[in-house]
């Protein structure tokens, strides 16, 4: 602050001198203060700049270290993952190679199976052709066997043309079967004697029934005599044990032609089939089996079991 000067009675030039002196003094002190301030600012800026530079350098160093650490970690992880991938790829390559090997093996096996199947198919075709041939041969053989069986049965039945079969006569020890025959012809009023009997035997049935006596087969010396006896029995509607003078409970007797086992079985099947189909008549004549549905229907001869289909 400028000092107030006392007012004097000096002249105007002195005043001017004083004024100039003050101005000069002020002008000289102001640049010095500004220069000091500038120097202080420069020093302060330099310190700030130095501190900032140091901090930036430290920060950059830390940043570079962290970046380097991150890069190292990433590189390590990537390398580890790449190693795992390479390891897995190697396993996949091994498995793929094994798969290719297995596929080749399967392919070879399939080719072998195809070849085997072709061989088997050819073999099956050969067997089928052979089977067809054999089937045809078997059919012919079966037909031939059937014909032979039928012929044999006919011969066996022809051998029984002189025979009678009597069922229902009780068995006794020391019995004389010819006596039963003589009693039967006497009752039927047929002229015959024991001399007409070639032989008489008890025959065990194919399927014996407990309590049922064995049948008696009587071979005569004349077929006409046999037929006469059968006709007389039919006219009398059968016989009984009392008719022959056999003591004990009265039993019904059955006198029939002597059939072969095959014809007996066929006769039984015919009776069952005829009964189911409501046929009224089933009879045997000269070892042959006949059926007729009623009085006006045609007579059907049954020769084999195949003829059973004729009964409808």
Automatic annotation (TrEMBL):
Residues 138-165 form a coiled coil. Pfam families: Baculo_FP_2nd (PF25298). Keywords: Coiled coil. Residues 260-311 form the FP protein C-terminal domain. This is FP protein C-terminal domain-containing protein. It comes from Heliothis virescens (Tobacco budworm moth). The lineage of its organism: Eukaryota, Metazoa, Ecdysozoa, Arthropoda, Hexapoda.
């Amino acid at each position: 602050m400028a000092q107030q000067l006392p007012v004097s009675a000096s002249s105007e030039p002195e005043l001017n001198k004083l004024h100039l002196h003050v101005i000069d003094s002020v002008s000289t002190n102001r640049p010095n203060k500004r220069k000091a301030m500038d120097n202080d600012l420069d020093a302060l800026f330099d310190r700030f700049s130095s501190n900032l530079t140091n901090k930036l350098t430290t920060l950059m160093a830390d940043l570079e270290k962290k970046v380097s650490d991150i890069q190292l970690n990433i590189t390590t992880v990537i390398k580890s993952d790449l190693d795992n991938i390479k390891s897995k790829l190697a396993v996949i390559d091994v498995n793929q190679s094994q798969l290719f090997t297995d596929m080749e093996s399967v392919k070879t096996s399939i080719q072998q199976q195809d070849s085997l199947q072709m061989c088997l198919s050819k073999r099956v075709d050969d067997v089928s052709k052979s089977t067809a041939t054999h089937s045809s041969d078997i059919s012919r053989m079966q037909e031939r066997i059937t014909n032979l069986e039928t012929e044999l049965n006919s011969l066996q039945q022809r051998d029984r043309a002189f025979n009678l079969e009597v069922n229902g006569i009780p068995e006794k020890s020391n019995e004389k079967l010819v006596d039963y025959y003589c009693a039967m012809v006497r009752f039927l009023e047929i002229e015959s004697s024991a001399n007409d009997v070639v032989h008489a035997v008890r025959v065990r049935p194919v399927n014996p029934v407990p309590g049922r006596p064995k049948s008696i087969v009587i071979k005569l010396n004349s077929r006409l005599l046999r037929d006469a006896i059968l006709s007389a029995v039919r006219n009398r509607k059968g016989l009984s044990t009392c008719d022959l003078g056999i003591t004990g409970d009265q039993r019904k007797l059955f006198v029939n032609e002597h059939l072969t086992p095959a014809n007996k079985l066929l006769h039984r099947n015919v009776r069952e089939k005829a009964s189911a189909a409501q046929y009224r008549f089933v009879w045997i004549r000269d070892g042959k089996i006949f059926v007729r549905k009623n009085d006006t229907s045609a007579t059907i001869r049954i020769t084999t079991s195949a003829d059973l289909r004729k009964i409808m």
